Every structure is written in C-alpha cells, then in structure tokens.
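Repro:
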Amino acid sequence: MTTMLDCYKNASVAFERWNLTAFTEKQQHLQQLHAQLPAAFQPACQYQLNYAEQELLEVQPLVSPTGEINELYTQGRGVSLMLVESCQQNSLTAFVAMVTALLIAGNSVIICSENTELNSLAEAIIAEQALPENLLQQLAAQNYSELLAQDIRNFVFIGNESRTAELSLALAARSHAITALVAETDLDTLKQSQDPKLVLRFITEKVRSTNVTAIGGNAQLLELGSAG
C-alpha cells in the first residue's frame, strides 16, 4: 500500500507542475515523445496532438453584459489511471492515443497493464525522459484497485466490454470526485482512440473574469429585451 500511495503522491506533484505548464510547452514535450515512438504508433500520437491544438490552444472569449472580460479556458483534471487488460496488437495504438490525450489535456498518468509488449513500450517512453519526472508512471495491472482508493480524476480502460459494468460500479462506489469511465473496448475500429474530441473528456473547463469597468457595462447587451 505504501508503494501505491507514494506513486499517487508523486503523480499528484507532477500534475500540479504540468497543469501550470503552457500548452505550447506541453506540445514540445509530447512532440519529443512522438519522435521517440516506433513509427507504427506515431500517427495515433500526432492525431491526438493535432486535434488537441484545435480544441485547447485558444482561450475562448465570452460576451458579458456588465463590462468585464470573461474567458473560457481548460485545465487538466488531475491524476489519471489507465488499466490495460487486452493483449491485442491494437491495444498499443489505443494506449498511445489515450496517453497522448490525457497528457496534452494537462493530467498525469499511472498505467496498470498486463500486456507485456505494452509494458515494454511504456518503460521505453519513461526511460527516454521526454516528459517531466513522474508525469507517466507504470505499475502491474493488479495494483489498479488500490489506486482507485485515491482521488483519481480520469479512468481509462482498454480491454473487454464485459468488464466495463464492473469498473463503472467500482468508480461509482468511491467517495472522491465523480470519475467517468473512458473505455476502449472495440480494438478493431478503435472508436474511442480515434475520436477527434477525445481530449475534451479529460479536461476541466474554467472561466477567468476580469473587471475592467468601474461603472456601466455593455450598453448593447443591456438594452436587449428593453424595447417597448
């Protein structure tokens, strides 16, 4: 249990630092990771990076009737847990896509996998040190249940659909923040891993408000609905 707790604490510290990192700097780290991946898995990584840039790079302005400046932006949710129970070849492609989306969204990731080939790939990624320390960690598959006792904010499952109901119930029984299950169970079409909006499942939306007027507001908006 101590090992699991240390792993979670390290991931929490890594998340706090990574989440404050500018999006463009996150991109640079993940482009380095992309370059170090085997060629077969690079498209899955680049695909998620491209769509994440479209969704997350620009802060969205929100119109306000009272004169302040409101901006919609995104942050990561926190420590993420990925459980891989499939040994199919496509599970490695799904893994790369999911890890890329989780990281570019601003989260840290703990991988629990029983796929030996995937474990070797994860070990190689961590060893290359393209990412900050403890941002990506790896443990044996059986450790996932102990980690669920911690405040995990994203949960990704790659495996058989028959397991999803059990995992959803385990997530619902937790006393921490609500954590949705993102499951890649169709390892033929990789429907979830090829979703261009995947990154949006791993973020928190926030609004930044700046008051720039001492009195008054946006007259055009204030007069809406006031015409007799």
